[in-house]
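I am writing to request your help with a piece of structural work I have in hand. A protein sequence and the structure tokens that stand for its backbone fold form the material at issue. Please examine both parts with care and let me know of anything in them that strikes you as inconsistent. The record follows directly beneath this note.
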Amino acid sequence: MRRVAELAETQVAQVAPAVRARGGELEAAGAVQLVRFAPQVVTAEVDDCAAHVEFTIVDDSLRCYCTCAAGRTGDFCAHCVATALATTRRVPVPK
């Protein structure tokens, strides 16, 4: 069974460079607070609770949701990138 960290890392590699850069800035600044962390579910508050991010695995696929405008339309936004980076930092994905 695939884990959130593995699937999230794959998703980060597919986003636009500007979104990846902004997410990296948020994560590096310590703006991600992992609220729930499990192999199949991750929730986080990002940027002083400006956004709430949820990752879940459904049928071996990563489902992402963020409360920001881009995230509500289904985009893997900068908040999702920041959460993914924080998740993979906590549990490195084997190469």
Residues 4-90 form one domain.
